[in-house]
Design brief:
Oligomer: single chain
Shape: globular
Radius of gyration: 18 Å
Number of helices: 12
Structural class: alpha/beta
Distance between the termini: 10 Å
Largest sheet: 8 strands, mixed
């Protein structure tokens, strides 16, 4: 019975699925990579996919620690180009050195082909104008650091990443929830497809506020809208297409900011609270998934 895991994009909110996975490891007594036949990720989910499948895989607890330790380094005020970028309006908000340094330190020169479990990350090639999947089977020579950085290169936040002759940005532009790619990865769909969200955005955009917006005002909200909309669309497709084989674990953010880059201690604590409440609310569902994974 093939089992696949898909992890959404969402920046620092990737802390939520990391904590859910840590709870699954606690309940099963097994590492995440050993329980799945494929792990797919977009953006922050791509970082987790690499972390969980590298030759000496991180535990999910260690992956959650990545957000606690390295999240503030990636989204650091020292790398925030607030003045020169005009808040992300005329240049990316963050210096690429922050995220690139963290990923190089974590993954070194490890290549996708070294993954202990087949894995994929989604990216968008802005030169070819087409969505792409970087896969451990078809792109074995791409480094995990490059793949994770490219999949996380959200417009207005980070600059694009060159991988070979490709110019790549965040896969969240078309597949924030990469579960569709996990579903079609093999001729035979998986018997279980677990898709973990990073928290649904809840901030309203009232008509009176947006009615006069132009390109500048729409810049950052549009990235969020595309990301959120693509995740919801994938969820709708797979709920009909896959039926009970598709399991979505997602929450509506009640305490934490929906900003991709709020790595403050206060918001990390709020994200942990969101994860703990999600685990409590969907405990029975998580138990059923864990039973399938170890059966």
């Amino acid at each position: 019975m093939r089992k696949a895991l898909a992890i959404d994009g969402g920046g620092i909110r990737g802390y939520i699925p990391a904590l859910v996975l840590a709870e699954m490891e606690r309940r099963t007594g097994r590492g995440i990579a050993s329980m799945f036949d494929l792990i797919a990720g977009t953006s922050t989910g791509g970082i987790l996919a690499c972390a969980l499948t590298m030759p000496e895989p991180m535990t999910a607890v260690e992956a959650a620690g990545f957000y606690e330790q390295d999240g503030p380094k990636i989204f650091n005020k020292r790398t925030l180009k607030a003045i020169t970028s005009a808040g992300g309006l005329i240049d990316e908000r963050y210096d690429t050195a922050g995220i690139a340094g963290v990923l190089r330190r974590r993954f070194g020169d490890t290549r996708l082909g070294a993954a202990t479990t087949p894995m994929l990350v989604t990216v968008y090639d802005i030169a070819a104008r087409e969505p792409l999947v970087l896969h451990s089977k078809t792109d074995p020579d791409v480094t995990m650091a490059d793949a994770a950085q490219a999949s996380s290169a959200a417009p207005t936040y980070f600059e694009p990443v060159q991988v070979g002759d490709r110019t790549l940005i965040d896969g969240g532009m078309f597949a924030t929830n990469p579960a569709v790619y996990a579903w079609v990865d093999e001729d035979e769909p998986p018997a279980l497809l677990l898709a973990l969200g990073t928290g649904r955005q809840t901030r309203p955009l009232p008509f009176e506020d947006v009615r006069g917006w132009g390109k500048i005002e729409w810049g950052k909200p549009l990235v969020d809208i595309v990301s959120d909309g693509s995740a919801s669309a994938a969820d709708a497709y797979l709920s009909k297409l896959a039926g009970d084989r598709y399991v979505r674990v997602q929450t509506k953010l009640r305490h934490a900011s929906d900003d991709l880059d709020d790595a403050s201690a206060t918001n990390l604590a709020a994200l942990r609270r969101e994860a703990e409440e999600l685990i409590a609310d969907q405990s029975a569902l998580i138990d059923r998934v864990c039973e399938q994974l170890v059966a």
